[in-house]
Design brief:
Structural class: alpha+beta
Distance between the termini: 34 Å
Strand content: 5-15%
Number of domains: 4
Strand order of the largest sheet: 4-3-2-1-5
Order of helices and strands: HHHHHEEEEHEHHHHHEHHEHHHHH
Oligomer: single chain
């Protein structure tokens, strides 16, 4: 393991400018130590974990203390300054022992993990899409910043972490770019913001983070947890009750922006508010082109089944709402115009989701896809070239199983045809039917709305539509299915294990 750590550290240093070597060494070893912790002491009681950790690092200190090559001294120095309290003492002793006998120690090695956090700023996009927390580290040789980007459109997760230039150059770049607000915060406040966002990131099964995040996140955590002051937890985000949401809808309808809108305006605005509040961070009055894309092209078509009459009203209502919200928040006109223009860009994606032949439904009616009532089967739209959904054979099923199959099979048929292509719809329908008939007890292990998504995930992998050089990636497919890769993998495995389906 130590040889692997040495090789990893050497490769990471070789790929970086020499001026960054102290930071890269700290980041490389912090990442390796975190990976070792996940592999060697991931479970058990805290005292047991601590005992394994102490034994491992004591052994590592003994081996590295006996070596005499420069590379192992760099590794030992980095470990002695980054490993947690359980293993730090023997590493520090071994480091001091070797330091007395080392013939020549490069100056940059003495600066590993020796940086001091002096200030912090928060830069927030005026549209509320995200914010950057910039940590300023003072150093005579190489002052630098650690920049943490938090994505509000993905639930305020940390999406990127990277080492940046000195803080004055960062501020200059932000001010030159415009469209941001900048404020100075105390280091404990910055640490609290970041640690809370990291918690949100870790709640994701497969978070869409950058490569730099993977490399620098352990360094970030080490530095924040070693601050002399405790991190200050940010205020709890206020929840918007159903009554408050309805009041906001009423205020919009009474405004000049709602004049002449279709009858579905109240329903559409309420859906916008629910999406903004429940699936993103920043509140219902946030005006953002990215938020428009998420709502029109991803969330609404997955949440609602409706015909063209209903969906034709959506762009008009959303544009009016954006102007209303922009006025309420006194947002810059160019930011409002950008969001309004985005409605036209993403309207075709919404139109493609409209029901072509709304069987049994009234014009303008919409049904939530996560509803599991018997009326759901009548709401499924026909896809071009696919026709109406087939009717499942309910013979021999009890009332509960018949109702479940009536919902599940057409839903799987629709989702497979829409996501993968019409040739896969029939196979999805058949798997759903087998699930209800052959393994009804399995249904309780996931939400009903998860099973059609898992069936599509299974078909995409079975037919090799996912992977390098293929049209889909695991993350893009999961995003299309409004779920997480881990949930889909787990549920699809239940299908293959229970129904003995091809993997």
């Amino acid at each position: 393991m130590l040889e692997t750590l040495l090789e990893t550290l050497s490769l990471d240093l070789a790929a970086a400018p020499r001026a960054l070597h102290p930071v890269i060494a700290e980041a490389s070893v912090a990442r390796s130590a975190a990976m070792l912790a996940d592999q060697l002491w991931p479970a058990g009681r805290p005292d047991e974990i601590g005992e394994v950790e102490r034994f491992f690092w004591a052994d590592a200190a003994r081996v590295l203390g006996e070596r005499r090559d420069p590379q192992s001294f760099v590794l030992l120095t980095s470990l002695a300054r980054t490993v947690g309290p359980a293993g730090r003492l023997p590493l520090q002793r071994a480091h001091l022992s070797r330091l007395r006998t080392e013939a020549e120690v490069p100056e940059w090695v003495t600066r590993i993990a020796g940086f001091r956090l002096t200030s912090a700023i928060v830069s927030e996009d005026i549209t509320g899409d995200g914010l950057s927390v910039v940590l300023d580290y003072d150093d005579d040789q190489h002052p630098h910043t650690v920049v943490v980007f938090i994505d509000n459109n993905l639930g305020a997760i940390v999406k990127d972490v990277f080492v940046g230039p000195p803080v004055d150059r960062v501020l200059e770049a932000y001010q030159r770019g415009g469209r941001v607000t900048i404020r100075t915060v105390r280091p404990p406040t910055a640490a609290g913001i970041i640690l809370q966002a990291l918690g949100e990131t870790h709640d994701f099964d497969d978070p869409p983070v950058s490569e730099d995040f993977e490399f620098f996140s352990a360094l970030l955590v080490n530095r924040l947890t070693q601050l002399p002051e405790r991190p200050i937890r940010p205020p709890i985000r206020p929840l918007l009750s159903a009554r408050q949401r309805e009041q906001l809808v009423d205020e919009f309808l009474e405004s000049r922006y709602a004049v002449g809108l279709p009858d579905d305006a109240a329903d559409i605005v309420r859906l916008w508010i629910d999406h903004a509040v429940d699936h993103t961070v920043g509140g219902p009055l946030r005006v953002s082109a990215v938020l428009v894309e998420l709502f029109l092209a991803h969330w609404l078509p997955r949440k609602v089944l409706a015909d063209s009459t209903y969906f034709e009203a959506v762009p008009l209502v959303v544009k009016a709402w954006l102007e209303f919200a922009g006025d309420r928040t006194q947002l810059a006109l160019d930011a409002i115009d950008e969001a309004v223009d985005a409605v036209d860009v993403w309207t075709p994606a919404l139109e493609a989701a409209a029901m072509i032949d709304p069987v049994g439904s009234k014009p303008g009616e919409r049904v939530f896809l996560d509803d599991t009532t018997n009326d759901l089967e009548d709401a499924y739209r026909a896809l071009s070239g696919l026709g109406s959904p087939p009717q499942p054979d309910l013979q021999g099923l009890d009332k509960s199983q018949a109702a479940t199959l009536s919902v599940l099979a057409p839903h799987a048929w629709l989702m497979a045809g829409e996501t993968l292509g019409t040739t896969y719809a029939g196979e999805a329908f058949d798997i759903a039917e087998r699930l209800v008939r052959d393994a009804p007890d399995l249904l309780a292990k996931a939400r009903l709305s998860t099973w059609p998504r898992a069936i599509v995930w299974l078909l995409a992998h079975r037919h090799r539509l996912v992977g390098p050089g293929e049209p889909l990636t695991p993350y893009s497919l999961a995003a299309d299915l409004s779920s997480s890769p881990a949930t889909l993998r787990k549920t699809a495995k239940l299908l293959t294990d229970t129904l003995i389906l091809p993997r």
